[in-house]
């Protein structure tokens, strides 16, 4: 067996860019005088002494060389002193130098003459604008370009197939020089499609002329230089390639697209062979001991032939080199796959056999190859010339410049399989459309048709996110299928002894070996081994790493969820502990691809806990509105995907939210982003700035490595960063509550299926092993041993999960409610399925658009942190508008207790029917419950924090006098979070008034609300006088029973101004504060006035409690209607506009009715 070559460690480049290579310093900056004066400008003594006719022509140089050679021969012939040679060579060398300087001056004048003379007309255009730009900015661009080249090339060199005795190979220095490449000419070809532009570019790259440059000029005029270093046998040897020049006619093909960056692909092809020249010195670097390799006769011609032979196969027209611009801008490594091609091989017809002698039959199968590698093959269909396969294969593709090879073979039992014919298919067809149906490809042999292959092909690209014009990032869809790029970088700490051992790493994905590194003899190996793999169920994918020594013994193992590795790579964590000690460095990236059937019902990733994010307030937000003020809200993103959001605060740059948001987290290394946004009525909402947080800073573990509850003691303040700079701050706090790992019903079902599959494989293996060679049996036993080890690693991770019954699960009131929506029958209307919980006004989950046409398989899932399972409500709606909130009309809707839905759908899928005006919508879903460890539910998160508050203004006592008679005419104005909600009647000539007036208001955040009371003296002829003011924190109110409080009043000078007596009755409910016609919430402070109190002669008027509030009569529902009079003499309720208002949902009132005591 051929020994696998070990992979080398990636070495960093020491010098990149022209400044570092030249050792440039600021003092070397050229002045205008430095630019003018070079060595050719200054004349030498000989130039001033000799007449012009005596030097400078070719025969002068020839004569000087002949004279020097003759004189030296005479010295040697007559055995004279060698010192005479010095006196011969010195004057002749000075004369030769003077003659050559004159010749170079002549060349300068000739070049100027060519520049002055107008060129003859041709159909090529100039690109002087681009050349001028490069001339001015190349010295600034070149260092960055050189750095990018080194970062890309060094890993390639480390993994190159160089001989094994070369231990390291890297770029020691690289610079493209200070002289930029030039586009000498350009021509645009006609007759292309509207989205394609094809041009011929004449490109040249020449070094600077340094023969007459001064030392200072040479520091600023650096030529191209590449130093490749290799380490072998303990020595480091440099190979220097410099003064590179080339000229080539390049054909450039640009395919456009409407989205940014507007160029989809760039194809480069060589119209003619390139002309190269360079200087190459080996084993000596820049010293005089180095050897110029091109001085070897004939080597330059050999290099030109090799370029034509190998580069021609890739780049000569019509072949091309393709660049995927969106992938490069997304940060993908060069050569990474751009997507997946799916081929449905249907059948072949009219196959002509190769050998028909002796009654030979045709047993066809097809091999698919791409990029010189076999990617798949069909099954063999025996004895037929009309085979039917109906098989589907998928493979990764990086670009479409390479054709797909399809080779059909005739299977033979005892002879070599014979080639029936082949097909070369140009994948460039996918540039025009992603799906190609009913293809009939001719099978060719000796350029003659010998059959037809029938198939369908589909290209599914990686979906990348994009940066929006406001600087925010629009992530790709969160799909469960896609491509993962997995890199095993290295390992450390696995060997406690001083002995150096040989180490190999094996990478398994779902127990399938996908990569194996080369053996590296080191206790700190660096492999940098990259593999790309297709994933159809990311949520259920696991990575296993096995480290083996030279004897193939396992010395370390790792078992991790794929999503954990991806999340860790996002935040820069790449080291993972091995089970036997030590660590392995592992990096992974994820590219979502929408595969058919890629979303599965078991695709949910179990969380490790929930993060409780308290959004307090923002200050100094940028005002993006030209007219008016922004309407900000805050959203929470996990790995760039939005999870939840706050209410909208209208017309303010200093919003106060005081809201709690919960998000589930699947890994401690996920990135949480808190982003302030501005509501836009037309178009996307705009970012105001964001702060990115590393969740690992808020997640704690105990000594056993289990996650524990972690609470923040204080609110943090952070600056908001956007593409326009840093402006504004946000106050927040984050708590973490771990989940209790439990075995779900899906896991039990999958475990039973795996056990059954394992028994079948074991039985099949025993049957197939009979009669096999001993070596093959040994390999199969080794494979079974590895599989048993991987299962043991998986079992160890599952052992910490609890297997609880349903009754035991629901004893935990706090938990993550997980719902899998499997399929549904949606009738004849297109729309979106939305899921709401409790008081949420915005949907917790919204599907993609469901096309009309009856039954659809969805295979989507979501979750929600239920804070009190006993009171929680679930609402599922089918709507027409994706952005519809909870108060907008729906086509079908159902509301039911969450615990009831959980009971019905826990063991198996449940059919849920949504009644609607135009018919009933039915969906199949299955739910599960993951308990959350929470020592005590914060009072702000309880159902007792929202509901209907009844306030009775009883009386006032010892109020100050404001009138001449020693009395006052007092009345009270009450403000909830700075919004006026009620005004009592006035009581004349008293300091101890009795009002006994009541009103009700809905509270969205009782614990964060303040009720302010202003006691005012009424005056007829002048302004009213303020007697005193006080406040009550609604957090001090008992939500379960009536509360009477005495509110002390103080005047503007801080002196005591009497007391006001209030009685509070709170009825907990889930309250929704939205208006259906807009995305904004109804009230700035989250409250709504419901009814006026008891009395006579009352009056109800609209005045403005806040944006979108309303007045409701006693017992009036969401319709918004005031019934009856009799509020009280002179009393009035100040509400907002009438319109359509919010509504109250939930079972909180009925469930808590028995706990409130004397409510009436």
UniProtKB/TrEMBL annotation:
Primary localisation category: membrane
Keyword Ribonucleoprotein among UniProt keywords: no
Name of the protein in question: Bud-specific protein with a potential role in membrane trafficking
Gene Ontology CC terms: cell periphery; membrane
Annotated transmembrane regions: 58-76, 82-100, 226-250
Domain C2 span(s) in chain numbering: 317-441, 591-708, 928-1047
SUPFAM superfamilies the record matches: C2 domain (Calcium/lipid-binding domain, CaLB) (SSF49562)
GO molecular function terms listed in the Swiss-Prot or TrEMBL record: lipid binding
GO biological process: endoplasmic reticulum-plasma membrane tethering; lipid transport
Pfam family, one: SMP_MUG190-like
Annotated compartments: Membrane
Organism ancestry: Eukaryota, Fungi, Dikarya, Ascomycota, Saccharomycotina
Domain SMP-LTD, chain residue ranges per copy: 123-326
Keywords, in A-Z order: Lipid transport, Lipid-binding, Membrane, Repeat, Transmembrane, Transmembrane helix, Transport
Gene3D superfamilies reported in the protein's UniProt record: C2 domain
Region feature (Disordered): 753-777
Natural source organism: Komagataella phaffii (strain GS115 / ATCC 20864)
